[in-house]
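re: ur question from yesterday

yeah so i grabbed the chain u mentioned. its 359 aa long if i counted rite. heres the sequnce exactly as i have it in my notes:
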Amino acid sequence: MRIGKKGSGRIRFESSLTVRSPGLELNDIGYMRYADKIHHGTWMGYYIREPFSIFRNFHLNLNYWLLWNFDRKLLSQHVNMNFNTQFKNYWYFNGSLTRNFESLSSTLLRGGPSFLNPGYWSLNFNVSSDRRKKFYYNFGRWLGIWDNNTSINTSYWGGCTFRPSNAMKLSMYPNYGHNIDKLQYVTQVETEGSTRYIFAKINQKTIGISLRLSYTLTPNLSIQFYGMPFISAAKYSSMKRITDPRADQFTERFHTFTSEEIKVNSEDENYSIDEDGDGETDYTIDFPDFNFRQFQSNLVIRWEYQPGSTLFLVWSQGRTGCITDGNFAYYNDMRDLFSIYPHNVFFLKFNRLFFIVLL
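ran it thru and got these structure tokens back, copy pasting raw so excuse formatting
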């Protein structure tokens, strides 16, 4: 259910309520992330569409949203302020500031009990130059800082687009992210008739580059290419198990294994856990460290051989590999990525438009 005001005027707003009962199941016809949720949100915006001062337009929005389950438990609270503006020189600038309060997550333990997550602040901005020009670019940053010094997540993006002619367009957009989180899910282990939910501190770095080329040879014949190398490496440390997922104090929600309780087995690439200190291994955990490398590309030739009838020639290539190293080394990872044996797919697609005259 939604109610609000749109159309003319500088002030617009909307308030909504969405209900998904615990028994709702839609996965047979599509993907549904969750049920057993009651979502309420309201936003209000102030819009100036006429040029003034150095601006061509300016939009400012204020938002809040709340989430409950059908047991009437408040799961999360969020407030947000965001803006979007275009200057008279046709540059763009937008950003947002969000506060997510302490929340109750039913998914963090992957089927286990709900966990009380710390709140966090997030801030982002994006700047873009005049997109009417042959060469334009943009850059931005996102920063998230969690309460109790539990996590810090930052990402940077940018890139440029070059149009040497109306027929050709080239673009390159790299992005980089760095995530440090004290509570990253690792695995769960059944032991002594109960489940141990194992977490750890993660230090993860990720980089990707999107490359695009579009070239129109004739009005009926064009070539498009897309390629993206992607690399992510993560090191885990400070292994711990969840003890009291809803404790008032963050540090009381888990127990970090001491040097007497955990042993590193480098040859077997796992950890041995001895919870009761009797010298016997209660269970083992495989090393979660990883270096994930992937490259995906598509080359498409499109030919409209008759009005409304087209032929597509497509070459798709993928390379995917993963090792348990965890050390981020861009040049080494990129070299090893392109030494992975590729998976190539070639296919041909065409359609034909038929005209039927009815008398």
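noticed a couple things. Residues 1-49+58-79 form one domain. also The mean pLDDT is 93.
anyway ttyl
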